[in-house]
Design goal:
The chain has 246 residues and is α/β, with parallel strands linked by helices. It has 2 domains: 139 residues, Rossmann fold; 84 residues, ACT domain (Alpha-Beta Plaits, 2-Layer Sandwich). 26% of the residues lie in helices and 24% in strands. It catalyses: aldehydo-D-ribose 5-phosphate = D-ribulose 5-phosphate. Keywords: Isomerase. It comes from Discoplastis spathirhyncha.
């Protein structure tokens, strides 16, 4: 471990993004590339190593249009899950990480594609700065739920009334403006890369049973997927004030 005190949040994100690639990505691999400000540093590192020739014969699967554009600009060879349904390793960030390594993801709106890629990966390396660690999921970051546009108000009401959700819920908010942020930055309903809407669930207290909430959300007709990633992370690399640790 080395001292990281005085480093900016972006510098900490760069440390974990680079470390994940240096530790886990090798020539000949199929690699899932995450979405978001932390994952972008991992994509940057893959691009450097492809350009230098250190990484040969690798192919990557991006989890969003944003990541695809970044990877293409860096000369990283890409494909989709249609061509490669088995992935050696995926690297991605998270919005919250609890002590059991359960995650909230999807602040950047790419939760469905991220989950599709990461669920078929032998290893999913989660990279975060220390601010993302929490004692329990819910109050620290809104939980995104991707829903179909058809009768979306109805689906929002059903989601808000689920037994594992309702007691802890403050409000359900339809994402507006850009789908890439859960801050309202426009007057139109945000649309994901998949043509769907996102409901952000704001919690007043910790979700008591995150696996139950995940199951109930997934079983709701009209819900495409949700940002609870339960038991999916193989390793969490954290950058904190005292250094980088796993």
């Amino acid at each position: 471990m080395f001292a990281t005190s005085g480093m900016s949040q972006d510098e900490l994100k760069k440390l974990v993004g680079y470390k994940a690639v240096d530790d886990h990505v090798r020539s000949g691999m199929v690699v899932g590339l995450g979405t978001g400000s932390t994952a972008a540093f991992a994509v940057e590192r893959v691009g450097q190593k492809v350009k230098s020739g250190e990484l040969k014969n690798i192919i990557c699967i991006p989890t969003s249009v944003r990541t695809k554009e970044q990877a293409e600009a860096l000369g990283i060879p890409l494909c989709t899950l249609n061509e490669k349904s088995h992935i050696d390793v995926s690297i991605d960030g998270a919005d919250e990480v609890d002590p059991d390594w359960n995650l909230v993801k999807g602040g950047g709106g790419a939760l469905l594609r991220e989950k599709m890629v990461e669920i078929v990966s032998d290893k999913f390396i989660c990279i975060v700065d220390e601010s993302k660690l929490c004692k329990g999921l819910g109050p620290g970051f809104p939980l995104p739920v991707e829903i179909t546009p058809f009768c979306h108000e109805h689906t929002m009401r059903v989601v808000a009334s689920l037994p594992a959700v309702k007691p802890f819920l403050k409000e359900a908010v339809l994402r507006m403006g850009s789908s890439a942020t859960n801050k309202r930055d426009g007057d139109n309903i945000a649309v994901t890369d998949n043509g769907n809407y996102i409901v952000d669930l704001h919690f007043k207290e910790t979700i008591k049973d995150a696996p139950a909430a995940a199951a109930q959300l997934k079983n709701t007709v009209g819900v495409v997927d949700h940002g609870l990633f339960i038991g999916m992370a193989t390793e969490v690399i954290v950058a904190g004030k005292d250094g980088v640790y796993i």
